[in-house]
Write a structure and sequence with these properties.
This protein is mostly beta strands and 124 residues long. The chain has a single domain, classed as Immunoglobulin-like, CATH 2.60.40. It is 10% helix and 37% strand. The longest helix has 12 residues. The chain is elongated and about 90 Å long. The N and C termini lie far apart (74 Å).
Length: 124
């Protein structure tokens, strides 16, 4: 299983998948029904049949990693890049789920509108 780092920012969730020795055409990325799936295969190629291996520690064969996506992700806008053995997956959040700044206006303890009426009366 390749190791994965998941980082959440204000606007997106970012996955970094470590895939040393892989090329982008050996990895498949799909999104279906809120599930992000990463698949790949590293084949064992024996270059010289006369060599005897004493130890094989690197992983070979297929792997599958799946992640359930939160509802806040805009699934149609997910992008992926592959560079130096790292698969970077950027998943932007939906606009309606991003934090919004709410401006606080001056007012009285009862209601803000009562203070506004007092100011309007004083101006007249």
């Amino acid at each position: 299983m390749p190791p994965v780092d998941i980082v959440e920012g204000k606007d997106k969730i970012h996955l970094k998948v470590e895939l040393p020795g892989f090329k982008e055409d050996q990895v498949n990325l799909t999104v279906e029904d809120g599930l992000l799936t990463i698949r790949g295969e590293r084949k064992f190629n024996r270059e010289n049949k006369d060599e005897n291996y004493h130890r094989i520690e690197r992983s070979y064969g297929t792997f599958v990693r799946s992640f359930t996506l939160p509802n806040s992700i805009e699934q149609t806008k997910i992008q992926a890049t592959f560079s130096d053995g790292i698969l970077n997956i950027e998943m932007p959040k939906r606009e309606e789920t991003k934090p919004k700044q709410i401006q606080i206006k001056a007012g009285t303890a009862e209601t803000g509108s009562a203070r506004k009426k007092e100011i309007d009366v004083q101006k007249a």
